[in-house]
Amino acid sequence: MKFAFVFPGQGSQSVGMMNGYADLPVIQQTFQEASDILKQDLWAMAGNGPADDLNLTINTQPLMLTAGIAVYRAWIDLGGEKPAMMAGHSLGEYTALVASEALSFADALALVRFRAQAMQQAVPEGIGGMAAILGLDDDIVVTICRDITSQNTEESLEPANYNSPGQIVIAGHRNAILRGIEMAKAQGAKRAIMLPMSIPSHCSLMQPAADKMKQQLQQVALQSPKTPVLHNADVETHSDATDIKEILVRQLTAPVRWVDTIKAFAASGITHVVECGPGKILAGLNKRIDQNLQQLSLADSEATRQAINNFRI
């Protein structure tokens, strides 16, 4: 048995998402640590919302980082072994770097808050967006994006997340996305819907944010990860701090290659993939990518204890 951990990003948050872990002291201790650093009561926000506050990017990113690290600490505290590899979906890549001891928790909290602000400022409200395309081959979606961008050089549309076979998220200018949705439906997409996100993540519109992150990362200490981390942009592991910083900058404008990430786990001998954090979104995606990989979600304290017991058998 060889297992990897994956950490969720934006989209897995919900009001009450940490309620199932409330019996584990290390969970609340981690939230208190983060709240002290950010001068904001993250535990109250996770438990009570309101949802509008929870879903603001500037809140969601540090909140999901804290949730992932809290659950990872709980796993270790309960006697769980360290994974052979790690990865994180978008924002979750920062959580993976903290869990791998490449980046301190305090530095990561400051970084993801800065990242959220930079992303929000990169594109004015109402200009950009994202949409999910379900039921089309990747090549067809890529062609749609290319055709729309070539028709109007002032607007762009790009694949942003390769989440699972037949599920791609596209990002870019809002008008281009609306045309992309119509073209995808005409090509036979099962669903093509706008997502409730004003920030067009993982596309060229994030270049201003990437430039800011490059400057910010120069001030942050990074170490070689003690557990290999597969990165979103190139599906490679990096041990050099400079290389890690470069790939974190590139991550903002490059698509999340999640399908390739899960396939790389399987190719390296991983047999079990454990989603570390609230929700089960990644486990659902992973099942569609490779049905031979066993999926576990540490969605509450009972699931965490059960997973640890299963791994001891």
Overview of this protein structure:
This protein is 49% helix and 15% strand. It has 13 helices and ten strands. The protein has helices spanning 25-38, 42-48, 51-54, 57-77, 92-99, 105-122, 138-151, 174-186, 207-217, 241-251, 258-267, 281-289, 301-312, and strands at 3-7, 85-88, 128-134, 157-164, 167-173, 191-194, 229-230, 256-257, 272-275, 294-297. The strands form two sheets. A five-stranded parallel beta sheet has the order 7-2-1-9-10, with helices on both faces. The chain is globular and about 55 Å long. The relative contact order is 0.17.
Topology:
Blueprint: E1 3-7, H1 25-38, H2 42-48, H3 51-54, H4 57-77, E2 85-88, H5 92-99, H6 105-122, E3 128-134, H7 138-151, E4 157-164, E5 167-173, H8 174-186, E6 191-194, H9 207-217, E7 229-230, H10 241-251, E8 256-257, H11 258-267, E9 272-275, H12 281-289, E10 294-297, H13 301-312
Q: List the strand order in the largest sheet.
A: 7-2-1-9-10
Strand tally is 10
From the helix content, strand content and strand pairing, which structural class follows? alpha/beta
Tell me about the biggest sheet?
Answer: 5 strands, parallel
Radius of gyration equals 19 Å
Helix content: 40-55%
H-E string = EHHHHEHHEHEEHEHEHEHEHEH
Mean pLDDT: 95
Number of helices: 13
* Residue share in β-strands: 15-25%
Instruction: Give the termini distance in whole angstroms.
Output: 10 Å
Principal-axis shape: globular
Low-confidence region ranges: none
